[in-house]
Amino acid sequence: MLDYVEHDGLTVEQALERWRRYADRTPPMLVGWLTKAAPHYLAASEDIAWHSTPSGGTGPAPVSRNWGRRRFVYADGAEVVHEEVVSGRRFEGDGVRELRLLRTGSVQGRKRDEAEIALAAGVVASADLVLSGTWEKQALTLRPATRPQWVRIAEIGCSDGTGNVLFDGTAKEAHEKYERDAEAAVVAAAAGTGYLPGAGCGDCDLIGLCPAVPVRPGLLGVDGTGLARRSWSLSTGRSFDDCPARLVAERMFLPRERAAEDSDHTRRGLAVHAWLEDLHRRVPARACAPEEAPPTPDAWSAGRWSVTGDQARLGAQMIADHALTCALGGEAGHVEAHPEQAIVVFDQQANVVVVAKADLLYRVGGAWTVRETKTASVLEESDLLTQFPQLALAVVLAAEDGLRAGEHVRVELERLSATGPVVAKLDVDDPGFVAAARAVVNARVEGWHSAPALKAKPGKICKTCPFAQWCPERKS
Ligand SMILES: [Zn+2]
Known about the structure:
Layout: H1 2-6, H2 12-20, H3 28-48, E1 61-62, E2 66-75, E3 78-86, E4 89-93, E5 96-103, H4 114-126, E6 128-130, E7 142-143, E8 150-157, E9 162-170, H5 171-191, E10 230-232, H6 234-242, H7 244-251, H8 258-261, H9 264-280, E11 299-302, E12 305-308, H10 309-325, E13 335-347, E14 352-364, E15 367-375, H11 384-387, H12 389-399, E16 409-417, E17 420-426, H13 431-450
Parallel strand pairs: 5-8, 10-14, 15-16
Antiparallel strand pairs: 1-4, 2-3, 2-6, 4-5, 6-7, 8-9, 11-12, 13-14, 14-15, 16-17
Helix pairs in contact: 4-5, 6-7, 6-13, 9-10, 12-13
The protein binds zinc ion.
Zinc ion binds at residues 276, 279-280, 288, 322, 326, 328.
């Protein structure tokens, strides 16, 4: 839409109008966001842009082609080619080049990422015009362009029209910043050759061939013949049940209003998880001790979660209790821990990439176990598999050899509550139990898998929906 405004000279209304002609195949949530985001971007641009240059030039004109460059880099004694392309809105005039990075959320008080800024500044300073499409998987076609003397990098928050100038200096300073803050990170990123299965696997063309993603047809118990490949996780299932349109917003990474969805006890649970995750990441792995609980139980934080008052005290007590049930006991070197382990399995029959995360995958001696940890002030004694679908999925994955290919993996549940910790070991070799777990997983998948479209289901749920502000169909 910004191309319509900046390159074709349309007004915002005309651009929206032209863009809306495609609205029948565009999710309403995206229309809702864009209707606000485009004017926000344009207003912030006015504030941020330079309007005349020191030599009296006319100021910025939009550049329609991407900026990119090709570099020859020596790494490990060999010469390799790096292609670097920046994305954002591009402007140029009178020896100045400006790149405006678009952020979906607000940029007020946003933390600076020096490596990102340095990369953008360095590339803009010596970029040519990219003639080939960005997503073509072949070498870039570049057309030489006159290099700037001055470089500006700005960021704009499209949710609220906030803006920050991130870099404003000579081309020479841009190159120096690149060398200082970006070079090492770029080389390290380009040298990475390991496999990191995760949420991105759903869009990967090599799924089915990847050595890090086991193929387990029939895992979900649904048939996807004729359907496009999609990815699914338990949170996909939850969002779908709440409102199918929420999935669309999540997939497009629309900004969410977190306050709407996080209750006090959710935050406490997340803080406890983050605290334990930090403890379990220690190298070498060792068991948690009671004195490693938060030293200030009335107010503490872990990861990006802060808790105070009753919830903070309960959380600190749960962490201290956890020392009694921590899985990582045993002699040093005997224990290996992988907290927040991503698990990705491809169900070819459903044509679905299953993305899961285990709270803790660990090994003691030769035995592997997945442990899920749940926090609740009160223990509920109803069926564990129904209560915790995550557990049911872990059991199915264990039965299908999807947790750690070739290894027998056990599954256990640790519950931390106001009355103390409890660990339950689940029998993944019991066919009846596995069948029950399959039924739970299948019930979570079925509705989503067979839904013809992800339409909004407005109702009470809108009150706690983090995307409500963008949704034209919300019920207030
Ligand atoms: Zn522990």
